[in-house]
Every structure is written in structure tokens, then in C-alpha cells.
Design brief:
Chain A: This is PadR family transcriptional regulator. Chain A: It comes from Prauserella shujinwangii. Chain A: Residues 7-78 form the Transcription regulator PadR N-terminal domain. The complex is a heterodimer of chains A (174) and B (226). By secondary structure, chain A is mainly alpha-helical. Chain A folds into 2 domains: 3-84, Arc Repressor Mutant, subunit A, CATH 1.10.10.10; 96-173. Chain A is built from 8 helices and 3 strands. Chain A has helices at residues 3-11, 18-28, 37-49, 73-84, 96-106, 111-135, 138-163, 165-173; strands at residues 16-17, 53-59, 66-71. Helix content of chain B is 34%, strand content 25%. Chain B is built from 7 helices and 10 strands. Chain B has a 6-stranded mixed β-sheet with strand order 6-7-8-3-9-10, with helices on both faces. In chain B, helix 3 crosses helix 4 (116-129), helix 3 (101-111) runs parallel beside helix 5 and helix 5 (145-157) packs parallel to helix 6. The longest helix of chain B has 17 residues, at 175-191. Classes of the chains: A mainly alpha (174), B alpha/beta (226).
Chain lengths: 174, 226
């Protein structure tokens, strides 16, 4: 995910200090991977250099200086363009699982066992995500849904491959 | 058979004409657990569920419920057991269209001899758990698919059964409604220590289970020692 664009998007609701931006980011998007402070400040420095944010003064308090940042018109255009640009669909061709299935068939091992073991692991992960949805807020639910649908896509592939295993065995052994 | 099992089946065989639906399927269900029975279409999942529930008699093998062999019971005893100890949720057409929703939910209690007032009071409580008590006076034709399915779940739970058999219970619903039905079904069942046998081919549905059993070509991945 583009941290820079996400920070810019958060700044659209008003100027913020780096510390507040990090807190906002972590609360909304950083469920599994909170931002490091260093990453926040290096990203803000880059956005500043590129004219996408501007400094809005510095607060001097008991601690370190706190600079406030605001999004510029160029920053707003950048966010708009980012939102309007589709993400590249992720296509995993020749993935590890496919390789394992083919190698199992080539070596006379049980490809069905490979698929069953993987199904079990996928379902275990899906149970964890489903339980997390039950106790989570809407942001948690949406994030877990996304992961669940991806895992489900893997499982659909597994089931289809299981249904084609005899045909695949003939092909790889011929 | 495992002595701790609430419900178990060993070596079930069942044919319909020349088609072998089950070819040695076995399954064991403990009290309070949610078991997903998964597998491709035509693998024998629904036939296994029907045999477990005593709806269909296997050609060979045995099903035990609380230590009793279902095949040794008379038809009348099996029917009584299904009314008192088992609840059912299917994909389609479970509600009686001529009855209101609360009458539908109260039906198993009425068939068990409970007076109308008591039966409908219990039905309303079950409907409240499923968040459909406001639909009590409506007929099934006047509620949405998701609402109707939650009414059906309330009816399955109203007798406080030991086991609920759910066959593709969200197959006709969109993702959001399906999720709501499953969440309420599983939480209500878990609250009462009710076991759920959940037949599904959808991984996201199976993710509500505590474990899965795969049915493939009429056999299960689970081995149960008789």
C-alpha cells in the first residue's frame, strides 16, 4: 500500500502533526502493520520535497518540536489521481502450491494429501479471521473480509485442482 | 463408537438405484461442536446428513445418537427424536406459507403437544435471539430471504435441540445476509451447547465451524472406529 498517498488522504480532513498522522493511520489501516515513526517522518519529508504537503508552523513544547503539515493543491490532485487509478490485479501463476502438486504427482506421492493439508491450513486461517470479525469494529470486518475472500479463492482453486487431479496426473507423467 | 460422542456414524453405505452416494462414510460429533461437512457437489454430503439425522436409512453401517443405534429405532421413535432432539435448517422452502412466522417457529412445540400460548411465547423468545421477533405476525411470503432463513433457524432452535443439521443454510442468500444467519445460528447454538452439523461447499461458511470433515466420492476424511 502507498503510505504516502494514505497520509495525504488523511491530511485532506485538516492539517496534522506527524504523531497524530501516525495514530490515525494505525487506527484505520495499520491493524497488522503499524507505521514506524521514522517511516512517517521520512514520508512527510518526501511529500514536502515534492510540494504535496506544506509546513504549517511548529509547536515548541516540553518535548521535541512538533511540525504541523497540510496538504497542498498538488497533493489533493495526487490523491485524486491515485484513487482513480486501478490497482494491478494480483495474478499468481505457477505458485508454490501448484509446484507442490505437480511434484507430488511426478514423484508418485499423494497430491490429494498436499491439497488436503493446504485446505486444512487455509480453513484454520479463515476461522481465525472469522472469529476476529466477531469481536472487531467495522474496519476489522472489512479487512478480514478482504483476506477471507482471497483465501476462499485459493480454496476454490484447490477444489478444482482436486477434481482435476487424475487428468493432471496423466499429463505430468506422460 | 466413541463413548464421548453425541452422534456418530461408522461405515455408512447408501445407494440410490445404481448410484452409490455413500461408500463407507464415518463421522463423529461431540456435544457443542460445530462440524462443517464439505465436499464437491454429488460427493454425498447431504446423504450423510440425512443418514445422521435418521431421515434416510443406510444400506449398511450404523448411526448412533447418545449411544442408541438409530437403525434399531422404529419409524415413530426416530420421528419423535427428530422433533425433540434435532433441529433442521435447509436451503429452501422450509416455512409453511399459510402460517405466520411465529406460528411457523412454534410449530415443533405445538406438534410436541405444547399449548398455543406457551409455544408462541417460546417461539417469540427464539425469534428475538435471531433478531426477527418483529416479523412474528407476518407470513413467510412477506419477508425477505435472509429474514425467512433466520425465522427457520429460530424454528430449528425453539425446541432447544442437542443437534442442528444445517444443509447449505446460506446457499440462497447474499454474503451479508448469509453471514448474519450463520453468526446468529452458531452463537445461539453455542450458547445452548447445541452441536451443529453444517453441510456446505463454501469455505467462508465452513470458517464458522470448529473443524471440518471432507466428503469425497461417498467417503469421509474422518475415520471412526466402530
Amino acid at each position: 500500500m502507498s503510505v504516502g498517498h494514505t497520509l495525504l488522504g488523511l491530511l485532506e480532513s485538516g492539517p496534522r502533526h506527524g504523531y497524530d498522522l501516525k495514530r490515525d493511520y494505525d487506527a484505520k489501516f495499520g491493524h497488522d502493520r503499524p507505521l514506524h515513526y521514522g517511516q512517517v517522518y521520512s514520508t512527510l519529508a518526501r511529500l514536502l520535497r515534492n510540494g504535496l504537503v506544506s509546513e504549517r508552523g511548529t509547536e515548541a513544547g516540553g518535548g521535541p518540536e512538533r511540525k504541523s503539515y497540510a496538504i497542498t493543491d498538488a497533493g489533493v490532485s495526487d490523491v485524486e489521481q491515485w484513487l482513480a487509478t486501478p490497482e494491478k490485479p494480483e495474478i499468481y501463476l505457477q505458485n508454490t502450491l501448484y509446484t507442490k502438486v505437480v511434484l507430488a504427482l511426478l514423484s508418485g506421492r499423494s497430491a490429494q494429501q498436499v491439497l488436503d493439508t493446504q485446505r486444512s491450513a487455509h480453513l484454520a486461517a479463515m476461522r481465525t479471521l472469522t472469529a476476529r470479525k466477531a469481536g472487531g469494529d467495522l474496519a476489522d470486518v472489512l479487512i478480514c473480509d478482504h483476506a477471507l475472500f482471497h483465501l476462499e479463492a485459493d480454496l476454490r482453486w484447490l477444489e478444482l485442482t482436486a477434481a482435476r487431479i487424475d487428468e493432471l496426473a496423466e499429463r505430468v507423467r506422460s | 463408537m466413541s463413548t464421548a460422542a453425541l452422534l456418530s456414524a461408522t461405515g455408512l453405505h447408501k445407494s440410490f438405484g445404481p448410484t452409490e452416494a455413500l461408500r463407507g462414510a464415518s463421522l463423529c460429533v461431540q456435544a457443542g461442536e460445530v462440524v462443517a461437512v464439505m465436499g464437491p457437489s454429488g460427493s454425498g454430503k447431504s446423504t450423510l446428513l440425512h443418514c445422521l439425522a435418521g431421515i434416510v436409512q443406510p444400506d449398511a453401517g450404523a448411526t448412533y445418537y447418545q449411544g442408541r443405534r438409530l437403525t434399531d429405532l422404529t419409524d415413530a421413535e426416530r420421528t419423535a427424536l427428530r422433533r425433540t432432539d434435532f433441529g433442521f435448517v435447509f436451503q429452501f422452502g422450509q416455512l409453511v406459507p399459510e402460517l405466520t412466522c411465529v406460528e411457523n417457529v412454534a410449530l415443533p412445540l405445538r406438534l410436541g403437544g405444547l399449548r398455543r400460548r406457551e409455544a408462541e411465547r417460546a417461539a417469540l423468545a427464539a425469534m428475538a435471539r435471531l433478531e426477527v421477533d418483529d416479523l412474528a405476525p407476518k407470513r413467510p411470503g412477506d419477508v425477505s430471504g435472509g429474514q425467512g432463513q433466520r425465522v427457520a433457524v429460530a424454528r430449528a432452535l425453539v425446541t432447544e435441540p442437542k443437534v442442528i443439521f444445517a444443509d447449505e443454510p446460506t446457499g440462497a442468500l447474499d454474503s451479508l445476509n448469509g453471514e448474519r444467519v450463520l453468526r446468529l445460528l452458531v452463537s445461539a447454538a453455542t450458547e445452548h451447547g447445541t452441536a451443529v452439523v453444517l453441510v456446505t461447499h463454501e469455505p467462508r461458511v465452513a470458517a464458522y465451524s470448529t473443524r471440518e470433515v471432507i466428503v469425497r466420492d461417498g467417503r469421509t476424511t474422518e475415520q471412526v472406529v466402530a
